[in-house]
Amino acid sequence: MTDAAILIPKLLQALDFAARQVRGTIERYPDFYPMYTRAGRWKHEGEAWTHWCDGFLPGILWLLHRHTGEAWFRQQAERYSRPLEPRQHDRDVHDLGFIFMSTYHHWYRLTREPALRDVLIQAGQTMGLRFKERGKYLSSFIGPESVFIDIMMNVGIILYAARETQDRTIHQVAVDHCLTTRRVLVRGDGSTAHEGIFNVSTGEFLRQSTHQGYRGDSCWSRGLTWSLYGFGIAYRYTRDRRFLETAELNADFYIEHTPAHGVPPWDYDAPADQRKQPDSSAAAIAASGLLDLAEFSASRAKARLYRDTALRILDTLTGEEYLAHTTPGWEGILKRGVYHIHKGLGVDESVMWGEYFFIEALTKALTLLGA
Ligand code: GLY
């Protein structure tokens, strides 16, 4: 059990540090949307692979505005959110949940302006267009034959659009995608595959595969946490117990296979020398997702385990190894993340989604602890 009296000041200090780092990044690189650092610096010519991260910096600004109440963060949040609006029609990525739930959703909850809700609805409807009737999944940016575990983080915006418009058809698209993902990407032990490949003519599922994990049959830790968190979101919208059970299965795998400090290797099945590389972003996502599961779980013992695990992760992430506060010149908040190890992108660096889910988890934990 983590002692709240010690943890609360540590979490508050981490948020203060985060606010300073983000302010510095915006002042240094105005109107730039960072993705991952190189040697601790956000701005470089490194490849993006796919354009899925632009919501995270504005998302952090919305979270910091809520935490600090400072008008400056609100102004910057709007400034960085507004240019994303055309992407409500973007059919090239499977990431419209990442982009809009971290921006327009926060904005709409604060203001209740109908035009903001319209953007969210359109983004959800655009996401729904990725649905493949044969196979019943939302295809990844790779092609029509491919489904990614990451898409579980983007199903929520379809469920949101369905709820706001009372559209049973797109609701069913999202539910079918979750059921297919559960069947083909989540294994019996709660581990996950990164990608699944279908025969597009017949809808037959062919095999598990990967881009960012060690192997097709391995468990890439960030994929596991996208699943844990994403099935929790699916449960929040549908109250379908199968989705909660899947999220809990992922959580139980995470807890059983992650070292006691709470931060996983980048892939649980990589050879021992490669497993020395952690992915702090997976830990941040897990902490935030576990805090949701602690709220949803029907079992008191499980809820306590999820809450305590999340707090232990945050205790570790706010310590010397991960928080960049004692690393001179480092522009990120959380060190030791990984983006794409095979392409050599963002390895042992700060990554923007890690920053976002870390700050989200810190604010959720402080609310839970009554701070
Ligand atoms: N493509 C999403 C991720 O890197 O987790």
Structure description:
52% of the residues lie in helices and 7% in strands. By secondary structure, the chain is mostly helical. The protein has a single domain, classed as Glycosyltransferase (Alpha/alpha barrel). The strands form three sheets. The protein has a three-stranded antiparallel β-sheet with strand order 3-4-5, with no helix packed on it. Glycine binds at residues 52, 150, 212, 222, 339. Residues 52, 150, 212, 222, 339 line the site of glycine.
Helix/strand layout:
Layout: H1 4-28, H2 56-68, H3 71-81, H4 96-101, H5 104-111, H6 114-128, E1 131-132, E2 137-138, E3 146-148, H7 156-165, H8 168-184, E4 195-198, E5 205-209, H9 221-238, H10 241-257, H11 280-296, H12 300-317, E6 337-340, E7 345-349, H13 352-368
Helix pairs in contact: 1-13, 2-3, 2-13, 5-6, 6-7, 7-8, 7-9, 9-10, 9-11, 10-11, 11-12, 11-13, 12-13
The protein binds glycine.
